[in-house]
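Colleagues,

For the teaching module next term, I've prepared a clean inverse folding example: a structure given as tokens, and then the sequence designed for it. I'd like students to try predicting residues themselves before seeing the answer, so please don't circulate the second half yet.
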């Protein structure tokens, strides 16, 4: 036999790698799903204190509640989303879910699979913020359970080079394993985006 294995052996090894990778994929579910948020496609409902709000499609069993207040946007998810803490939480700086001139936003859902269905434990949403002298972008990480939704952390998306990586880490640790905090924490570098 020469220095290189015969073709049948190479094929056999390659096939084994493909099968092993497929098996590994089967036991390790995808960590994120994405849903688009377009308010023109949502149902208008009464929000807190009679303010206009929208109820939008999210993951099965987890509708998305969006209300626009004077200071910014309130977003909550899950059954009775308008009654959850997140429906009363927003950033201190003026904010919106939509980039200037845009009408669509995206929600990233972090989830596990139970009974062949995705069960979310966190969402990550980009808020566009504004102050007197600066505009910014903040990733809001929200804890999600079958009973509650609440802000747990904020990441300055302009001050952190790998902001989405940090946000996902917070979603997978703090949001998934901790309880709702009294106040969300600002994690990573800060100062570029009004919060």
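(Answer key — instructors only)
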């Amino acid at each position: 036999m020469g220095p290189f294995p015969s073709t049948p052996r190479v094929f056999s090894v390659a096939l084994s790698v493909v099968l092993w990778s497929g098996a590994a994929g089967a036991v390790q579910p995808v960590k994120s799903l994405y849903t688009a948020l377009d308010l023109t496609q949502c149902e208008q409902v009464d929000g807190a204190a009679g303010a206009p709000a929208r109820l939008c499609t999210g993951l099965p069993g987890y509708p998305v509640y969006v209300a626009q207040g004077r200071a910014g946007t309130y977003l909550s998810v899950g059954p009775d989303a308008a009654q959850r803490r997140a429906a009363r939480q927003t950033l201190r700086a003026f904010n919106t879910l939509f980039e200037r001139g845009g009408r669509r936003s995206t929600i990233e859902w972090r989830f596990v699979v139970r009974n062949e269905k995705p069960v979310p434990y966190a969402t990550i949403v980009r808020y566009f913020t504004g102050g007197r002298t600066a505009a910014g972008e903040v990733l809001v990480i929200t804890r999600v359970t079958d009973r509650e939704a609440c802000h747990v952390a904020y990441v300055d998306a302009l001050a952190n080079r790998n902001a989405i990586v940090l946000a996902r880490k917070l979603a997978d640790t703090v949001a998934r394993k901790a309880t709702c905090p009294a106040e969300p924490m600002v994690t990573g570098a800060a100062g570029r985006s009004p919060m």
